[in-house]
Hints:
With 454 residues, the protein is α/β, with parallel strands linked by helices.
Amino acid sequence: MAPTQPEQRDPCPDAPAAGRRLRALARTSGQTLPLVVVFMFSILVFAGLVIDFGNAYRVQKALQASADASAAAGAGQLTMVYPPVVANATSAAQKYGSQPGGSNPINGVPAGNVSQNVSVTCAQQAGYNCTNGYPNTVTVDETANVPTYLLKLLGFSTITLKAHAQACSPCGGVPLDVMVVLDRTGSMSQNSKLTNAKAGINAFMKTMDPTLDNVGLAVLPPAPSSGQGCTDVSSYFTDTKKYPDGSQQYAGSGGTYSLSNAAYVLVPLSNAYATSTGNLNASSPFMSTLNCVKAGGGTAYAEAIDAAYQELVKDGRAGTQKVMVVLSDGAANDGPTFLASTSPYRTNPCGQGVTSAGVAKAAKVLVYSIAYTANGDECDAAIGAKIGSTTVQWYGSSNWGTPESPAMPAETALQKIASPGTQYFYDLPNPTSLTGIFQQIASDITAGQSRIVQ
Length: 454
């Protein structure tokens, strides 16, 4: 029997298994690599979305703020002068844009990547229906091409964003209580001044919205009574007294200012003046009275201003802007004889007018005044006023009149009657320009009320 040989052992008994594992691992690695690539690509896309869209969101807010600022700035120019200047509104809007040359560049966006379009039009708003055809609305559209960071690797080099804004001024919607104080003295019969004044007020009334605004009418000198608004008051101011040179002293005796039932407010605050903005009701108390008042008598501001303010208090509505518009063509130098001879209503007719207006202004009433052909007129004390030991005997700005103390020209008085600010006082306008002035006052009432509407 042959001897048994020792069993030979395989020095690498696991070699086939190891190979199998290596081959399996190789196969697994080949399958994982695409997954890793997809995973990394997904991370890149997600990061791109986070970074680039986050930046786009920031730019969008800045772009909208720029468009809003541009529209508001442009609209604000539409009530600075009258008629409004489209070029001024456009220039103001462009100034606040993000486009090249604008004052609001956006960080991270080249100015050349931003474009702006500005249009100035008339758009109907609540209380403003473009009756006069003048623009009241500025529309701004801005476009920005925002550079990307990570999304650029995917072929998206920019993201396009747009912003739209629209602002109006005047916008309407601001309720107003307005008292018009009209000087219808004898001198207003010269050179068609009263006719021009009525035309101006008529234009003013066409801008008022009867669904929002109430308007009333006060006059100086007053009517004999509330039912006599159309009465010619000239006869009440007849004075047979002669000046020292023998010429006729034609007024200055107090006239209707001295009547106990004198009516300064001929038409209380009301919205009956029109059926809609621009469509005036000729038979309404305001329009019919405005058309019928006649020129006559002397000048005294104070009591008419007092009465207009009292009407704003009495019939004015809560939550409205109170406004007074005063037009006069000369100096105050008359007053009521039933007051004491030392009353400032008689000794200082112009100064008391300023004081009376001050009471209204302290109550936040906006007071506009027009010094209509008042150049060179001197404010004098009224006949019968007592200044020191002297009683005034002569009327008005003549060689024998008695100047107020301190001295005050009519232009100065009317400027002091107005609210502070150049937009509230109109000095010596051309007689034929009153229509434009009253229209400008109507626009000025809503100045500062520019607002974003889109």
